[in-house]
Every structure is written in C-alpha cells, then in structure tokens.
Amino acid sequence: MAKPISLQLYTVRDACAKDFFGVIREVAKIGYKGVEFAGLHGKSPADAANLLKDLGLKVSSSHVSLPTSENINQLADQEKTLGNELLVAGFGPDDFKTVDDCKRSGERFQQASEVAQGAGLKLACHNHWWEFHQVDGRLAYDIMLEEAPSLQAEVDVYWVAYGGADPVKVVNQYKSRIPVLHIKDGPLEQNKPHLPVGSGKLDMPAIVGAADPNVLKWLIVELDSYDGDMMSAVRESYRYLTSSGLASGNA
Predict the structure, then answer these.
(1) What is the topology classification, in CATH, of domain 3-248?
(2) Which of 32, 131, 141, 157 has its CA 20 to 30 A from that of 91?
C-alpha cells in the first residue's frame, strides 16, 4: 500500500520566510498529506497545530537540534503540541572523518535517542553524502549506526547515491530502522541543482520498494535547490510519486 506523502518545508524555505502559513496552505492544496518542519519561522506551535488541523495535514517529523537533557522539555512540548513524535537531527562532515569520529557520532546519537525516548519521542538521523565514504574499509554510516542501536534512520536517498553508495542496498539493509525516507532526485553531479522527483537519475520504485512497508510511515519530498520555481518542482514531485503509485496524497 502506498505511503502518505509529506514535504520537508526546508524545500520552500525562502517562501516560508515571507509567508509561512500561506506556503503550508499551498502545500495542502497540492495534495500533500503532511509536512516535515525545519523551524516554525516565528509562529507558535499551537498556531501551527491549529492550521494543520484546519487543513487536514499531519506532521511526519521535525528537524531539530540534537535532543539533550537541557532542551528536551522544550522540544517535547513543541512537538507534542504539533502532534509529532519523530525528531530528526544530523551531523556535519567533520564528525565522520575517522573511525573514532564515526563511533563518537554514534554514541552521541544513541545518548540523544535515549533522551528522546524518555520524553515519549523517537529520534532519527538524517544523512548527507559525507556518511557514505569509506573509513578503514567500511562506510562511515555503518560504523555510526552500529554505535546507536535505538536510533532510527531518515535516509536521504539522493545523498546516499551522491556519496557513492547504492540507495536500494542501504534502504534494504536498514529497513527495520527506516520510518521515513527523504525522496530527493537530481543529476548526481557536483554543484548541480536538484530536480523534481522522477526526473533525475534515481530509481525511485526500486528504492521505495526496498523499504519495509510495516516500518515505513512516510515518503518526504525534499529539494535543497532547484533551477526554477520551487513550488512547481514540489507539484511535479507530488504528481510523479502519486501517479506512479509510490505515494498517496489527498488530491
């Protein structure tokens, strides 16, 4: 059964900075069933939650700073108000240079995951390309996840491929830990902008098909950049994923 489709609002960050709630209304109008937050642009969680309720949208997940004992109460209050239970965080390239770096990153993620769980939340890691280089003959990503057994994974399928790994294999390998996939597409060339999902080089049916349907909850569209009108790319991505039967929407 096709999974519901969400949009990472970072995709339309420039428009969000001008009219955050107007953008969310437009996303709902296209047919998206959910959104993934990357900040609230000065709006209160309660006001955002009311808007989502009015529009019939759910929160698939939220990108936040790494949960700690200092910030977890504020994070939990915000996310529970939004109706969300999945937090997502990530690390930079310097955190994966050596085996020790990868292990340390995994330990930090595990600690943060336990903090989140203590507040009734779950934590997933979001990858870029730098987790998919070899460190002493192993993928940095594998070393990191080994040290964080309770951590879930929000696999960004484009960055996996851009980093040189096979996203179908990675998704299949970690399918028991993948509740959400970042569905992103493009030319897989350095410094080239992303493309609407379905018009780049990734085999989306094979990638989505590698996930465990009993674990996967959402497909989340994200473009970091686009050489054109971003909302048009958001529409095209929605059309491709829903018309191909890979995702379900409201339109």
Answers:
(1) TIM Barrel (3.20.20)
(2) 32
pLDDT tens figures, 137-176:
999 999 999 999 999 999 999 999 999 999 999 999 999 9
With vertex at residue 193, the alpha carbon angle to CA 182 and CA 64, rounded to the nearest 5 degrees, is 40
| End-to-end Cα separation, the chain, in angstroms | 17
What pTM does this model have? 0.98
Are 178 and 211 in contact by the 8 Å Cβ rule? The answer is yes
Q: Which of 177, 165, 162 is nearest to 224 (CA)?
A: 162
What is the reported pLDDT for 1? 84
Taking the C-alpha atoms of 61, 67, 71 and 75 in order, what is their torsion angle to the nearest 10 degrees?
Answer: 10
Across the chain, mean pLDDT equals: 97
SS3 of 91-117 = CCHHHHCCHHHHHHHHHHHHHHHHHHH
Strands 152-156 and 218-221, bridge-based pairing: unpaired
What is residue 3's three-state secondary structure? strand
Tell me how far apart the alpha carbons of residues 94 and 130 are, in angstroms, rounded to a whole number. Answer: 9
Looking at the predicted structure, is the pLDDT value of residue 122 above 90?
yes
